[in-house]
Design a protein that fits this description.
Layout (H helix, E strand, L loop, with lengths): L14 E3 L1 H7 L2 E6 L9 H14 L4 E5 L3 H13 L2 E7 L5 H9 L3 E5 L3 H12 L4 E3 L5 H7 L1 H10 L5 E5 L4 H12 L5 E7 L18 H9 L3 E6 L1 H15 L9 H9 L6 E6 L22 H8 L1
Parallel strand pairs: 2-10, 3-4, 3-6, 4-5, 7-8, 7-10, 8-9
Antiparallel strand pairs: 1-2
Length: 308
């Protein structure tokens, strides 16, 4: 796939060796920082292709349902292509920075009194109308573009990883990663983490009660290509904090679901593992507790007193 005329420089995100987490887990763990894509999430890999093809087909608008990251990505690439972006989000259930991203580039962001699944149902209906193209991961161009991460990982590592772990929200990225490796004749163990409390989870990017790709993910599980682990809120929060505090990588809460799954999975001795961190931490800064603000007089003694 050649470079799109609407590219924002997506892909080629850093792969960071997680030295301290590797020691804890007994493996060689690398963090794929896909939150360093242009709009701050992995969605850009597939969105650029979906918007390019919508433009070529003569669409005047792209439409998506979103918990935030899809909205930001669709809006940015639509702006590049000169298309309108229509975004439906569940009312009160998306992080403010993600809505701000979409609005800043001109998207029409409409809140729906209902769940993500209600918003997606409406978008699918809109996508059937002339001039509108649905750019959720139900659009095969999204999955096709997101497959690029598989080749990128092999190139960066110099080998096929033994294990790849990632979050499971709607399932589009799980499907894309599995397909990307299959296209290359590679078959790493794919471990995906979902929130046990899907409709209400604190990890808002995977707050999806009815995954659009559930049937395909179930097929992948049935063929032993994917393992799904259901994670508690505590496990998600613990992994998110561990990534930040032991490796200095700030991702949004849902992005750490792959790391949480690796912590649960058992013996990883000697294996090479990659955890795909799907979004940047600044996507959901409210997840970070502010704590008490420490204000002191402008003296070294006052600072040392606070430090104890």
């Amino acid at each position: 796939m050649g470079l799109s005329p609407f590219s924002l420089g997506e892909g080629s995100t850093p792969l960071v060796r997680a030295t301290r987490l590797s020691a804890e887990l007994g493996c060689e763990l690398h963090l794929k920082c896909d939150g360093l894509n242009p709009t701050g999430s992995f969605k850009d890999r597939g969105m650029v292709l979906a918007v390019e093809r919508a433009h070529a087909a003569g669409a005047h608008a792209v439409v998506c349902a979103s918990t935030g990251n899809t909205a930001a990505s669709a809006a940015a690439y639509a702006a590049r292509a000169g298309l309108e972006a229509v975004v439906l989000t569940p009312a009160g259930a998306t992080a403010g920075p993600k809505r701000a991203q979409a609005r800043a580039v001109g998207a029409r962001v409409i809140e729906v009194r209902g769940t993500f699944d209600d918003a997606l149902r409406l978008c699918r209906e809109l996508g059937q109308r002339e001039g509108f193209v649905l750019v959720n991961s139900l659009n095969p161009d999204r999955v096709e573009g997101q497959k690029s991460i598989a080749a990128e990982l092999i190139d960066q590592l110099g080998r096929v990883p033994d294990i790849v772990a990632l979050p499971f929200g709607g399932g589009g990225n799980v499907s894309a990663v599995a397909a990307g490796f299959a296209d290359l004749g590679a078959a790493p163990r794919l471990i995906v983490g979902e929130a046990a409390e899907r409709p209400t989870t604190w990890a808002s990017a995977i707050r999806i009660g009815e995954p659009a790709h559930a049937e395909h993910v179930a097929t992948l599980v049935g063929s032993a290509r994917v393992e799904v682990l259901s994670l508690s809120e505590h496990e998600l929060a613990d992994a998110w904090q561990a990534v930040a505090r032991t490796e200095g990588v700030f991702c949004e809460p849902a992005s750490a679901a792959g790391v949480a799954a690796l912590k649960r999975v058992g013996s990883l001795d000697g294996l090479v593992a990659v955890a795909i961190l799907t979004g940047h931490g600044l996507k959901d800064p409210d997840a970070v507790a502010d704590g008490a603000q420490e204000v002191v007089e402008p003296t070294v003694e006052a600072v040392l007193a606070v430090l104890g």
